[in-house]
Amino acid sequence: MKTTYFRFDLGIRSLLPQWRLLIGKLYWREDFFAGLTLALVAVPLSLAIALASGVDPAIGLITAIVAGIVCALFGGNSISVSGPAAAMAVMVGLAVEKYGMSGLIFIGIICGLLQIATGVFGLGRFVRLMPIAVIEGFTAGIGAIILIAQLPRAFGLPAPSESHTIDVLVHIGTLIDESKGAPVLVAVGVIFLLWIIPKISSKIPSPLIAIAVPSMLAAYFFEGQLLLIGEIPRSLPLPSFPVWPSGISWIELLGTAVLIYALASLETLLSSTAVDKLVRGQHSDLDQELIGQGLGNLVVPFFGGIPVTGVIVRSATNVMAGAKTRRSSIIHSLILVATVLLLAPLISQIPIAALAGLLLSIAARMMNPEKFINLWNLSRSDAAVYGITFLVIVFVDLLQGVQWGLVAALAVVALQLGRTRVQFYGSGSGSSGSYRFELQGPLTFLSSLKIDELKSHVAELDGGRGITIDMHAVTEIDGSGAEMLLELIHELLERGLKVAVLDLPEKEKAFLISADSSGRISKLIASTEQELMQILEGSISGDPALRLEKGLNRFLKDERHRYKKLFGELAHGQSPHTLFITCSDSRIQPNLMTSTDPGELFIVRNVGNMIPKCAEGEVFAESAAVDFAVGILGVREIVVCGHSSCGAMQALHGRQELPSNLKNLEAWRKATVQNEAYHSLPAAMPIDEVARINALHQLDNLRSYPLVREKEQAGVLKLHAWFFEIANGEVEIWSSDRKKYFRHSESLKMRN
Ligand code: ZN
After folding, report:
1. Which of 272, 330, 536, 639 to pair with 511, CA 20 to 30 A apart?
2. What is the DSSP string of 242-296?
3. What is the pTM of this model?
4. 574-751 — its CATH code?
């Protein structure tokens, strides 16, 4: 994990190399082209978003110019573009309505300072703590509000006196007969062009063409019939110190500023995540991005601009146009400056209806129903959170929408985390066969409905059978949960079933036993197969045949279903990845200790995990197995696994007397001692050490097989020596670099 550090230098030290690139020789052509494309897109978008935010369109351009330079210089990646954002428009509009332009200026400054602080102290990651369903419901809600708010403009109706969605809808409803043809035609023309141009070519800056063409046609055909943007200043404002607006409460303004800060930061996060997806190998530095945004928001107000965020469409345009450095955003700002200075008269001729058309199209994209459909398919509860957020934002209030969305999302999480699930397996008929419940998730007061359901199920079970309650997937038990489980068990016992509780975690086990006043439960808890059998079948340890039979039954009835698909696939053939050579000792379980499934390990077992040297004229099953595994199955790993207190090592090294009737064993010992040179090891060497050396020795023997040697040298086969410590179930692995066995748990620790 990255360590957090405070960036009291605003990240400048780490930005210096990138700033040096700006004055370097590279990428001027790419960045200029990208900056130009960006400016062509940014002019209409900035004008339109300013309109939607309830401020003069010209302010949109000023904002884009300042943010385009400041945020680009200090941001967390080199491609993101910042400026006035549609997602912020409704919030900014409300702030302007309430506090006026001079109040908004202070809101921008506070928002900027908060963002800078967040970035400097490395808290950017907390911005992520927002459920996706709320974010998407919010975005769609803003889209709907913008859409509805722009309809009067598109219909050429007078502006409504109230900005609330319902008021606007009523306003439109009463005045719809007065709508005029010219603005509708212009708006529809813009929407049509925005839809058709990207289908023709993704290179054309569609917003510009979509605004310019209808505007020119309208100027010719509908002269004087359309409301225009009107005069915009042909100069840039000089920075000025803002004046505190009179009659406004600090506290309220601060509250709004905090909201805008939260929203702008979240929007920026979304934008940089989107940009990271477009640029291969790029990971935005979120804290730095917030510092960049904060500085932008701090400087913009001094030029009379509105709060900014990272903006997705312009950033994506920048990427597509081939931008290479932070220079392209700065060039975009300079072109915007030139536009204001040179083309102000032309911009003033743009009809408001054209900008409304552009906003309608942006709003429709924000409302993207596909997102809702995806959520619906993925999770109904997420879709509900989306729906609540959306509806409350559109019809009640922006802030309340987010609050309700968050409450709904938390409720969903609480319910999901608290949900107990039950799997039931039953088999056999009459009094033979067994039942099995698997409880999953937490067992708490929230589980009572589920346990009641189980109880009604229990009433139908045949008495006299065994029932296993498998608890391995239970994550937590509280007092009510323990009570309910005990009740269930007692009910089962009363019905004459034999109950075993399997795999109860230690903590939960102690808890359950202490909650049980009858004292019966402690005898019903099993943690191994043998204990389980003991409880369900009575004592079986004396009869191995019965043990095997019960084991077969249990596999058949309880476990086989888990492997059905796997065995179905394995029926067509095996392709194990590893040849696993180990001792016949009953305490070694290759699949258990490697958590592998059937089909993964090709296992060779014999006394002492030995592989004979490759020798012509001699026949060994082990040699044949090596040929088969390496030559035909094509395993990529060979593991030789010795183990502690190995009887074979004892026999070879300890040289104790063997009973005289074990001629085979004696012959094996003689031959092996001869071949493997055990006599050369010091007599005082502990047996476990002999086992470790023996495993290494088998690697040498394996390398005497030409096929093994060739494949190992080609790097397609690896050989490993392992040593299994039975007492603590730990595996030691030989490190050929450090000439030492290392416990796997320790090497894990070293790696982390
Ligand atoms: Zn052994």
Report:
1. 536
2. --PPTT--HHHHHHHHHHHHHHHHHHHHHHHHHHHHHSTT----HHHHHHHHHHH
3. 0.67
4. 3.40.1050.10
